[in-house]
Known about the structure:
It is a single chain. This protein has 218 residues and is an alpha+beta fold. It has helices at 53-69, 124-132, 140-149, 155-164; strands at residues 4-15, 18-26, 37-38, 41-43, 79-85, 95-103, 116-122, 170-172, 174-178, 181-185, 204-209, 212-217. The strands form two sheets. Strands 1, 2, 3, 4, 5, 6, 7 and 8 form an eight-stranded mixed β-sheet that branches. Strands 9-10-11-12 form a four-stranded antiparallel β-sheet, with helices on one face. β9 (174-178) and β10 (181-185) form a beta hairpin. α2 (124-132) crosses α3.
Amino acid sequence: MTAIAAATVVLLRDGREGLEVLLLRRAADLAFAGGMWVFPGGRVDEADIGGGEVAAARRAAVREAWEEAGMVVDADALVTYSHWTPPPVGTSRRFSTWFFVARAPEGAVQVDGGEIEDHHWARPGDALRRRDAGEVTMAPPTWVTLFEVAEHPDVDAALRAARERSEPPFYETHMARDDEGMVAVWAGDAAYADGDLSRPGPRHRLAMRKDGWVFERT
């Protein structure tokens, strides 16, 4: 299945108790990711295309932030963060998605009331705990991004870390299974080529256990 070009923007702000990120809840009746909590984003439209893949994704991220959350984001303020491609099988749609991070603009969030039903400013660690408690659902790219962003005390630190990366990481997900459930595996993991999760060696995986998700990277 050919992957559809898409873009996502992780909007950050400094809250009273630390760094917060904007999460949106997709409508439960949507065929793709219905009911999940996500960052603002969507497919790259024809009007976004021009100037290369990343430039088109940048324009799409700005447009989606406005359409889904009523947030006016400056394209020049977007910091390229990562790129995600899901497995070639097992999903109804595949999106080849550029992730960007940016400081959230001033103003209230206004969800579109169509694809997006609700929003929440969350501390990343709190959002991860709510997922483990079964209160919210999210996809692995959202989880991993929150896990990484949770390391930073404020927006300046998160943006600085993103800018200092030599290049954005590319996550092309492979799925494997063991006795405890599904595991998302990425390049650098000993199981990436054949799905043998017991193979000794480096780890770069997300184990999606019933009692909580566990990220390993050596």
